[in-house]
């Protein structure tokens, strides 16, 4: 508890000093760089607490939030266009990474897989919407949820296999397929391609079955001929 008080006290003092300096315009053109550096230092402080003290796993969350803010502010200072496009994905992805770190370091907190997967899914959707004019956000969202619940089932947890996760995973996967199926480019290109591939498979399989049937028939005829030859009585020659 004392260590936490020292940490929070130091964070509050530094934040107050920085705000005063900003109000007096002491940073000048380097204001964004200074704030990015300070957020990065705060992130390092929280992450070190989470790593050094197992009971303080919660520190991963503010640590990754501050690191995400530092990254966004740094991009705004250097590459404003990239910050505009990717700030949402960076923030959501950073918070999602905090929950994955909680799971990876504390397997008993298996529940962290769910917010981690959902936030990464939202980060992916935000990124697609930034660079793609007409993304299928619904299909991607449900696919991400299906993957998240599948990971809840597949990944090792302290409580054993989570079989219940298969049901939401299957439901979300079905919703993803249905959503993708209604997208125009899927209807125009993927469905015809899928039909062609299915037709080729049916023809190939029919040819393979025909060859197998011919082989079986030849084997039966050969076996029948041998049996008829064995059953034919031999004629004894007169002495």
Which features characterize this protein?
8 helices, mainly alpha, 79% helix, 239 residues
Could you describe the 3D structure shown?
By secondary structure, the protein is mainly alpha-helical. Among the domains are: 1-78, no CATH class; 188-212. The chain has 8 helices and no strands. It has helices at residues 2-23, 31-52, 60-78, 80-105, 113-131, 137-154, 166-181, 184-231. Helix 4 runs antiparallel to helix 5, helix 5 runs antiparallel to helix 6 and helix 6 (137-154) packs antiparallel against helix 7 (166-181). It is elongated, with a radius of gyration of 32 Å. The mean pLDDT is 81.
Brief description of this entry?
The protein is 79% helix and 0% strand.
Number of helical segments with 4 or more residues: 8
Number of strands: 0
Residue stretches low in confidence (pLDDT < 50, at least 5 long) are: none
- Could you give the order of the helices and strands? HHHHHHHH
- Helix fraction, binned, reads over 70%
Rounded to the nearest angstrom, the radius of gyration is 32 Å
Strand residue content: under 5%
Major sheet details: none
Q: What is the first-to-last residue Cα distance? A: 118 Å
Question: Mean pLDDT, rounded to whole units?
Answer: 81
User: Which word captures the global form?
Assistant: elongated
Structural class: mainly alpha
Give the topology.
Layout: H1 2-23, H2 31-52, H3 60-78, H4 80-105, H5 113-131, H6 137-154, H7 166-181, H8 184-231
Helix pairs in contact: 1-2, 2-3, 3-4, 4-5, 5-6, 6-7
